[in-house]
Amino acid sequence: MRRFLLTALLSVASFGSAVAAPGQPERMSRMQADLGQACRSDCLQQAARPGAHPSAAQACQIRCAAGQAHARPQARGVVVPQMVAHRPLVPAAAAQSHGVIYAARSPSAAFALVVGEADRLAAFRTAEQRCTQAGPGCRVIAEFTAACGAVAQAVRRHPSAFVMTSDASTFHVMSTSAGSGDTRQAAEAEALADCRGREPHLHCRIAAVQCGRPQ
Length: 215
Fold this sequence. Notes:
By secondary structure, the protein is an alpha+beta fold. The chain has 2 domains: 2-75; 98-211, no CATH class. Helix content is 43%, strand content 24%. The chain contains 5 helices and 6 strands. A 3-stranded antiparallel beta sheet has the order 2-1-3. It has a 3-stranded antiparallel beta sheet with strand order 5-4-6. Helix 1 (2-16) runs antiparallel to helix 2. The longest helix has 25 residues, at 24-48. Mean pLDDT is 75; it is low at 2-21 and 73-92.
């Protein structure tokens, strides 16, 4: 009996996928309701039989409900697409940003700042090469994953210079400090704070600041 009712429900669903004639949707809805009620009644009868398992009756009710749910949209002439399991769309993890700062020992002013590298080793190689090209004795002074990096230098006026300007010949670099942050301002502030903590009696200046993200 149960198989007959479920088959009847699915047959109504298939028949309803065609364009309905005037008055036909109402008749089909009543037919579906009657079949659904009969299906549930059959489930109750089976549950009342001696030795019937409760889970079997529950499964029967679920099948009746599924049959009606399948038939209902089809009766309105709406094609129900086949359900296909899809994995939820999860955004790809952003590439890790690597930043490195190399600097030479005083009195050399050589340094190199690299930010936004996806490859950590490549960031180290590039920074070391650039710093070494500017002067000897380069070593790493900072590594970070923030978007921006900054270099601050503590400088002292060169004895032969009348005034200290941005020209490297007018000052000596006494120490080099590094800073990083999510913004240029944050990176500069950290570099200057480190510089002033190291050399409170000298002038600290931002020598370079750069921001970038892995491509």
